[in-house]
Design goal:
Length: 155
């Protein structure tokens, strides 16, 4: 059951875009390797993820530990190597509450990459997650993109 949170659908999709001075392949490795995600998480929500969980396809599941100590299983629902990755988090063994994190990378001819980070909670079904979803603003997504850029550009 989808819940109408009194907001238009477009208000439940936030994103941030930035051009990063690094090749798409280098940036994608930082995203597709969950062990690297806490380094660039602008929400300061991720504490750690085990090594060896590199995402390779739709259907992969990787586990992260949040700063609060809870684990999340992240179900990969979109994947195009070097270009696109999206996942839906869920409690271990639990149902996906309906929010999605997406990264899209568009390589430019000059060796830079346009990176778009999106948080989509149009299908969110858990009312207890509503405050956190509303608090996930474009500024917070931009913080993740900025941290990602700093890592990718120094490599």
């Amino acid at each position: 059951m989808l819940l109408n949170w009194g907001m238009a659908e477009q208000d439940r999709i936030v994103s941030a875009t930035r051009r990063i001075s690094a090749p798409a392949a280098r940036i994608f490795e930082l995203i597709a390797d969950p062990a690297r995600q806490p380094e660039w998480d602008g929400n300061d929500n991720l504490a750690q993820a085990a090594q060896g969980q590199r995402v390779r396809a739709v259907g992969d599941v990787f586990t992260t530990t949040l700063t609060q100590g809870a684990d999340r299983e992240n179900h990969v629902v979109e994947f195009d190597e070097g270009r696109l990755i999206a996942w839906r988090p869920a409690p271990p063994g639990g149902a996906q509450p309906g929010h999605l994190w997406r990264w899209q990378l568009d390589a430019a001819d000059d060796g830079t990459t346009v990176v778009t980070h999106t948080y989509d909670w149009t299908e969110l079904t858990d009312p207890e997650r509503l405050p956190r979803a509303r608090a996930t603003t474009a500024d917070k997504l931009a913080a993740s993109v900025d941290r990602l850029a700093a890592l990718a550009e120094q490599a």
